[in-house]
From TrEMBL:
<dbReference type="InterPro" id="IPR018108">
    <property type="entry name" value="MCP_transmembrane"/>
</dbReference>
<keyword id="KW-0496">Mitochondrion</keyword>
<dbReference type="Pfam" id="PF00153">
    <property type="entry name" value="Mito_carr"/>
</dbReference>
<feature type="repeat" description="Solcar">
    <location>
        <begin position="65"/>
        <end position="149"/>
    </location>
</feature>
<keyword id="KW-1133">Transmembrane helix</keyword>
<keyword id="KW-0410">Iron transport</keyword>
<comment type="similarity">
    <text>Belongs to the mitochondrial carrier (TC 2.A.29) family.</text>
</comment>
<keyword id="KW-0813">Transport</keyword>
<keyword id="KW-0812">Transmembrane</keyword>
<protein>
    <recommendedName>
        <fullName>Mitoferrin-1</fullName>
    </recommendedName>
</protein>
<dbReference type="InterPro" id="IPR023395">
    <property type="entry name" value="MCP_dom_sf"/>
</dbReference>
<feature type="repeat" description="Solcar">
    <location>
        <begin position="156"/>
        <end position="243"/>
    </location>
</feature>
<dbReference type="GO" id="GO:0048250">
    <property type="term" value="P:iron import into the mitochondrion"/>
</dbReference>
<keyword id="KW-0999">Mitochondrion inner membrane</keyword>
<keyword id="KW-0408">Iron</keyword>
<dbReference type="GO" id="GO:0005743">
    <property type="term" value="C:mitochondrial inner membrane"/>
</dbReference>
<dbReference type="GO" id="GO:0015093">
    <property type="term" value="F:ferrous iron transmembrane transporter activity"/>
</dbReference>
């Protein structure tokens, strides 16, 4: 729906998805899932571990306001995350766009590199950052604010984590849809026919072709994708964080008891955050995002 190369700009989400399945098969909306899965693991490992570390440092050592700390931590975490996910996103979006000319992930990567060079994989990086930095800042702040209302004791509460995650993702997605439209335009241009270069040119092109409403193409699909994705992501992340911290406390308890009876050193405390991010990343491979095109 957002792709410049698509000739069906006025079709609804269900119509585009239906035509896609009818003409190209039931599994057509899942194209590109491989590259999304491969990129999501390391990207989210950096993402969540950087966020947790910076949030802890800013709030405890420098006494920075909580909301400011959450937003700033999300910004820096996004820079690392997007460095890995931008190339994966380019391939995924080209595979998913309506009437995609690519047969598979490797075919897409080879043709993109041969025709447009390595820079094509990072053409939208600045736009990605311009979109994701405000998105993640809003996302993290909205999540933490929602947590203060749904989970004031800050204990492990699956229902509160899911509700907070869904609200945060939906709000952030709606606000940053115009930037997502520009990013998608840059990522999905036809090979060998570079019509738009740079964020400002993308903004100008979207306005010329669609007017003010052109910046909100795919808004409902984007919100529909982000709300369940962020709800599942935060719920999964918080579960594994709780699980690993609990295991760490148990290990400390066993260590103390062993010291009391002189049976040697105990087990070290468990690190939390990093091991669980691969699981938390899984919702982002949900390719309902294809309905945005």
């Amino acid at each position: 729906m957002q792709s410049l190369s698509v000739n069906h700009h006025n079709l609804s989400i269900s119509t585009v998805l239906g035509k896609m399945i009818q003409q190209e098969g039931l599994l057509r909306p899942l194209r590109g899932i491989e590259v999304a899965v491969v990129g999501a693991g390391p990207a989210h490992a950096l993402y969540f571990s950087c966020y947790e570390f910076l949030k802890e440092v800013l709030t405890t050592r420098f006494n920075v306001n909580n909301h400011v700390a959450h937003g700033f931590s999300g910004c820096l975490a996004t820079v690392l995350h997007d460095g890995i996910m931008t190339p994966a996103d380019v391939v995924k979006q080209r595979m998913q766009m309506y009437d995609s000319p690519y047969r598979g992930v490797m075919d897409c990567m080879r043709k993109t590199y041969r025709v447009e060079g390595f820079g094509a994989f990072y053409r939208s990086y600045t736009t990605q950052l311009a979109m994701n930095i405000p998105f993640q800042s809003i996302h993290f702040m909205a999540y933490e604010i929602a947590q203060t209302m749904t989970n004031p004791t800050r204990e492990y509460n699956p229902r509160a984590h899911m509700i907070s995650g869904a609200l945060a993702g939906g709000i952030a997605a709606a606000i940053t849809t115009p930037l997502d439209v520009c990013k998608t335009l840059l990522n999905t241009q036809s090979e060998g026919k570079l019509m738009v270069r740079g964020f400002l040119n993308a903004v100008r092109t979207v306005y010329i072709l669609g007017g003010p409403f052109g910046f909100f193409k795919g808004l409902s699909a984007r919100v529909m994708f982000q709300m369940p994705a962020t709800a599942i992501s935060w719920s999964t992340y918080e579960f594994f964080k709780y699980f690993l911290i609990s295991r760490g406390k148990e290990d400390h308890h066993h260590e103390d008891k062993k010291r009391e009876i002189g049976s040697g050193s105990g087990i070290g405390s468990s690190l939390y955050g990093v091991p669980c991010v691969a699981f938390a990343a899984a919702p982002e491979t949900n390719l309902l995002e294809v309905s945005r095109r």
